[in-house]
Amino acid sequence: MSLLIQALRYHGQQDVRVEYVEAQPCRKDDVRVKIAYCGICGSDVHEYLGGPIFPPPPGQKNPHTGVQLPVIMGHEMSGTIVEVGSSITEFKIGQNVAINPSMDDRHHGNVECSICQSGRPHLCKSWACYGLSAHGGGLADEIVVKPFNCIPVPEGVSLKVAALAEPLAVASHLIRISGFYPGHDVVILGAGPIGLALLLLLKVKGARKIIISEVTESRSRQAERFGADMVVNPLAETSDEAGSENLVLNAAQSIMGDGADIAFDATGIQSTLDTALLVVKPGGVVFNVAIHEKPLLINPNSFSFKEVKLMGGICYTNEDFEDVLEYLASGKLAAEDMITSIVPLEKVVQNGFLELINNKAGHVKILIQPSK
Ligand SMILES: [Zn+2]
């Protein structure tokens, strides 16, 4: 008889269930990790409300992993290694790890493609993800992964904070590929979890001035606490009766001179894209962080006339996990304040998913803790 574990499984829109499922076998090149904490991502909430986006459609299999609904959710996890396969030499039982949930050619037994070989396995055409499209996820008692999914947690970093490594790695990766240099001025449009993670990391990485644009009061306060130089509500009333004044632009002109070196759009609506193009200085970068539900309008003149680069990015590599874990170990990155609630796995639906839907502005990151 095989062992049963508790896990949250996605059956479809507004149908996620805590259930007992069979534990995966730990084969010779696998590692079994007992989950300590797993965060709920905004994308998990999107799957709940409007999915499946990343899990396979009903009745179909993921072409790379063969998995079909229901799938175990959760991809922001930390834990402790409890079993290693016979060919594993780089990890030992008892080691604490953060998990990079990305899967690529290596997981499917394929020859690594040119994209994987170029150091971008997160863009592999065979990409899949634990917690969305694989046989296992972090909202469970345990998970079986490959050793290259595991990043050792340095001494002095708790497993609780290590569960933030994934969202922080997203931010760290986007900053790394954006062309950011210490001394740059940055505008961030939106203070959700990734906007705040960008803010925390940009401060550690040496940004000169950071302006946050955010409409909700509670998130604005969080951005202030996390050290933004200015927090602007773009919808605040102004003396300009025509309503044509852009308050974020005013702020950028007041403390950044010629504008921002980089504008990160972490909201993804027409007005935030327009504002990003407005506040960026000539030669700067407008960086799309948001996931869009529909296309936006853009006049290419707006990047031609200022020689602005328009770019985007997604996910991370193991290097990004290593970077943020090092920052966390150094004590410079005070990310623990991102955790607004810790909830047992049994209550993940009511106090996790539904709480993030009904009280979104009250939270940055909810962590889920398995019972065992
Ligand atoms: Zn590949």
UniProtKB/TrEMBL annotation:
Occurrences of domain Alcohol dehydrogenase-like C-terminal (ranges): 193-329
GO molecular function, one term: (R,R)-butanediol dehydrogenase activity
Pfam families reported in the protein's UniProt record: ADH_N, ADH_zinc_N
Keyword Transmembrane helix: yes
Entry keyword Transcription: no
Source species of the chain: Cryomyces minteri
Domain Alcohol dehydrogenase-like N-terminal: 28-155
Similarity annotation: Belongs to the zinc-containing alcohol dehydrogenase family.
Cofactor: Zn(2+)
CDD domains given in the database record: butanediol_DH_like
GO CC annotation: cytoplasm
Entry-linked InterPro entries: ADH-like_C, ADH-like_N, ADH_Zn_CS, GroES-like_sf, NAD(P)-bd_dom_sf
Keyword entries, A-Z: Membrane, Metal-binding, Oxidoreductase, Transmembrane, Transmembrane helix, Zinc
Sequence intervals crossing the membrane: 186-204
Domain of life where this protein originates: Eukaryota
Biological process according to GO: butanediol biosynthetic process
Protein name: Enoyl reductase (ER) domain-containing protein
